[in-house]
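Q: I'm writing a short explainer about Mu-like prophage major head subunit gpT for a general audience and would like to include a description of its predicted shape. Could you first generate the structure from this sequence?
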Amino acid sequence: MLRDAYQAAPSGIRRLGRQTTARDFRAVNKIMLGEAPLLEKLNEHGEIKAGTMAEAREAYKVETWARKIGITRQVLVNDDLGAFSDLARRMGQAAAETEARILVTLLEAGSGNGPTLSDGKTLFHADHGNKAGTGAAISDATLSAARLALRTQKGIEDRTIRVTPRNLLVPPALETTAEKWLASIAPATAADVNPFSGSLSLVVEPRLSSATRWYVTAEPGEIDGLEFAYLSGAEGPQVESRSGWDVDGVEIRVILDFGAGFIDHRGWFMNSGA
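A: Of course. Here's the predicted structure. Afterward I'll give you a sentence or two in plain language.
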């Protein structure tokens, strides 16, 4: 009897990134301009002074990931149940799992502090104002601190920018705890009000290695953060098959041109948990 195949767990972290395309395999440079200069009051001579705008840059690149599998003609002939007829779709699912693991590995680089950015500091750093000073469990106090840290983020010109906390990213071990703190309740007193009910969306990523670390993020459409790219014209996995000449059978391969990087730290906050 042919058993159902295992289904890959959905990728939670993918929801928190922005998808784009790259023209080639060279580094994708993301340039960000700072805020426009503030206006100044004109003096009595009516002179308008020139201002400047700062810029920042982050980069990542698309790389090729591939795998193939061969099936002999004898196996195909003996395949009464059609077990290999759906193999191309399963190879595509394996590519999706590869993408999810790449994104999680990127997030957890640097011993959990994320990749090193162009300023020489990791994604989550005290100087970036997006990392809890002391790890603690999810609670009113810690969620409030995370929201405050994002709300008070400063731009390149050291001016407060718009960052709206929208997502709470957790590993499976914290799913029940997170659901409790985001649940809607009918409070009897003002002290029982849940301020985070409806304000944050729960995102569970089963591939996260830490059972305690959690994150609060903004929407990827509001501010730059995690970005992933496919090669232009080859979005998603490319699955191909051919009949073997040297080998009596069929070969199926999947090629994925995919890359990811963090291009700004201001939309992500991390607490190492407890």
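A: For your explainer, you could say: The mean pLDDT is 89.
Q: Perfect, that's easy to follow.
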